[in-house]
Amino acid sequence: MDFNVKRFAADAGTFLSRAVQFTEEKLGQAEKTELDAHLENLLTRAECTKHWTEKILKQTEVLLQPNPNVRIEEFFYEKLDKKAPTRMNNHELLGQAMIDSGNEFGPGTAYGNALVKCGETEKQIGGAEREFIQSSAINFLTPFRNFLEGDFKTILKERKLLQNKRLDLDAAKTKLKKAKMAEARVAAEQDLKMTQSEFDRQAEITRLLLEGVSSTHAHHLRCLNDFVEAQTTYYAQSYQYMVDLQKQLGSFPSTFSSNNNQASMIGGASVSVPTLPVSTALSGIGGRSSSGFSELLSSGGSRKARVLYDYDAAGSSELSLLADEVITVSSVPGMDSDWLMGERGNQKGKVPITYLELLN
After folding, report:
1. Average pLDDT, integer, range 14-19
2. 123, 94 in Cβ contact below 8 A?
């Protein structure tokens, strides 16, 4: 019991001594031992590393999970050491909605079939996104968190000890200056020698920890490379999925897309969405060849053609069409092979081949 009382009294005395020293320094009534320039630079770099690591970590979390409520929920599950419930991401939700609607409209129709295929691709992209997020969390976010919650907290702890040792050292210096009696000066000199030794030792410990920040930078560089590689894989997979989808849908969606782009540029007409038999919509070039389009394109002549479904011209160079009407079509040198020149009376303009059926 007496030992605990003495220890408490000693700790209280040390705390009071530090408080007095700190206050007198702030008031300019006491000198302060300055850290060497190298150590100060290391401390500044560590603070800078901490600041930007926190910022990058936060913004990466926002990138991977834009919903703040979900981020908070995942944070609590992580702290409770429990697995967060699996939920569909936005790509997967969109994909499922497309698949359900496509099945409702009928997978035997062009629109329904396209919706199902688009939905399946969106779900593939959603799966790639899930893998990207998981990889980034393990190889990028976790090392950044480990630095902030581990190494940097250790640095803060040792830096605080260094601050206390520095206050003890300066208090011992002040005590020596104020000592008048020889005996008091001897005791003060011994105290100064001990506090100087403790300060030097703590400064060395802190310096070694701070120099380790260079290793942290090297490690975070490797993590950054892993993050970029994960992003590259994700974007490459997503691109390939979309390219494969375009191939599955055939030439009709590409024509439709190009018309939409032209319409958006002129701010005018839009393209209607017809209902095509799947075999017609996905037949592509091969289907047209069997119907005589290849001969027409190569001969440069003209033929009668029946319009399969409505088409709204996207510009003055095109001709609007009505389903089941019959027009005259001809090939023009230099024109895109997906288009023909159509004529209806005095009206003339480009028409897409995929909207036509040649007549005998």
Report:
1. 66
2. no
